[in-house]
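User: I'm preparing a small set of examples for a lab meeting where we compare how different chains pack in three dimensions. I only have the primary sequence for this one, and I'd like the structure in token form so I can line it up with the others. Please keep the answer compact; I'll paste it straight into my notes.
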Amino acid sequence: MLIRLIKRVPPLLALYRKITGQGSRERQMGETLADIDPKHLARYQKACEWLEPGHRVLDVACGCGYGSAVLADAGAGKVFGVDISEDALEHARQHYGTNAAVTFLKGDLDSPEWKQNVGEEPFQLAVSLETLEHMPDPRHYLRDLAELMAPGGRLVVSSPNAEANPLVVDGVKVNPFHHKHWTVDELESMLPETGFSLETWFGQTEDDMVERGARDEAKYLLAVARR
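Assistant: Understood. Below is the structure token output for the 227-residue chain.
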């Protein structure tokens, strides 16, 4: 009964997760790739399918930086990992900054100023995994990304699937850090408004595999859009 009451009050739920360690699931803080949740790695590995050798790549909301390292090791010419947390970036530089192709930068995605630090040369690939659900309205952020992309460049984004992984269950918000979970139809509608067109999407189920389709079963969506 007490836990159910706590879950109805987002500040109490955030404190509960911090005390119990559950809040750490919002960031993967492993020191090696072997320490990272396979579901998180699978999303970056899928994103690498749209990466060509020498591409300039943005890894936005990069967290502890393991994904930026995955992209660099896959052949990216340059990867900029951007995150708002200095603690996460310090971890990234310490454990995932050995590849010279990777640069980690601090940036607040709610402010357009973050774009100034990544240079003027356009990007062929932008990866933004588990980011949209943390924003009240991600349209301004997606428009900022579109301005940085080369024509024909790809954006790979992921989000909890609102159809199979709703944010509110029995009137209770299950994650106090999230503003909204998205559906395929909503992404398909929003992306053209922000300068992208949805090319394809994948659903990630509990078996850690990212598969095409599985709309009703997938806990997470991964969408690929073209600039």
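A couple of notes for your slides: The helical segments are 2-7, 10-20, 38-47, 66-73, 86-96, 139-148, 184-193. The first strand starts at residue 56 and ends at 60.

User: Perfect, thanks.
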